[in-house]
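Researcher: Here's my situation. A collaborator sent me these components and asked whether they could plausibly form a single complex. I don't have experimental data yet, so a predicted model of the whole assembly would be a useful starting point for our discussion.
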Amino acid sequence: MSRAREAHAGLVVGLGGLTVRFLAASRVRERLLSLLGPPTSPSRTDLTIACNVPTPPPRPGRPRGRAQRFTLAGGGWEAAVDLAARQASVTGEDPAEGVLTVLRLALPTLLRGGVLVHAAVLAEHDRAALCIGPSGAGKSTLASLFPERALGDELAVVWCERGHWSVQAFPCGLHRAGASGLAALLFLRHGARDRLTPLVPTRAAGLLGQQVHWPTDDPAAMRRTFAAVTSLAKAAPSAELAFRPTRAVWRTIAETLAR
Amino acid sequence: MRTFRRAGSCAWRELGDELVVINLKNNVMYALNASARELWRTLEQPHTASSFVEGEAQPTVEGFLAELSAEGLLDISEDETPGDTLVQGGLPMPAPPKILWREPMQRFGANCGFRPGQGDPCIGDPHWS
């Protein structure tokens, strides 16, 4: 198969309830599969990313609003993104790195009923605790204490479909592909002992909002993100988790997952 | 007569007894207590401060409405016709209305999750067109 035909065969993966189609050569597709998990069945496409191949012509009739296009560059790659057309192109020696950056920037605008949040994810039996906090709060510490349960230690996508909240680690830092049902929101801080302090939904919404990537250039997407943040704060039990960095903290986390 | 009503650039949601609201002009989120939530519910229509409460509590309510206006959450008009008095004897206010907290919401959250050396360096803001 020629490189062009091979690339246009495409790779489709699911991320946070969205369907992302990649047009790329097999070497890049394999790298993306290792980062983003197994392919899904092609249905609708929420975003098409062309890697080192020509971008397909935009679909007609798509609205083009303010701040819907941007360009960016990193070490050895360049990207151009048109969110209104749901298309992006990444060129360079290692486009996978650029793809992840494009996804990180595009997801907050594209997600419907979901958010991208600074959080580690610990899961057991399809019940996950979203362990939320800024740098230094203990996300990586928790994930490294429980490598068998950690889906990720830095960024997570949380989304709601048919009333069911799911979580998936965004591929950066420590992460494993795969999604889990969401059982609890835990706001991390280091402490002298392991302790859970329940939070009222308004406080949970505020703390969650501080760690969410907001699509600040797009008022309609801001409204959707606000709705997702408040729905999540209302739906999921929330608590502040003060913890010491030992495996004994799992007993406290398991309490919240069992509820 | 000065009237107040919710600004169109806000989104809000009741959570339990309280309410969270975001001003989409400056991307600041606020939480309001139960008394403030009662006020907020009625501010879909323009109202004067005196249409909510009577007597000693009126300056408190007027000050709170001015505070919400300063935050861009309410529009003030001198021209609009106020709505009717809402509740005989005033709205139920177990405590003075107040903003519980306010937090700015950011594109990258409180910190950028990507660190140099992790394979996806923090690249700063993209160039929008």
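Model: Some features of this prediction you could bring to your collaborator: The radius of gyration of chain A is 19 Å. Helices of chain A lie at 3-9, 26-36, 95-110, 139-145, 201-211, 219-235, 249-258.
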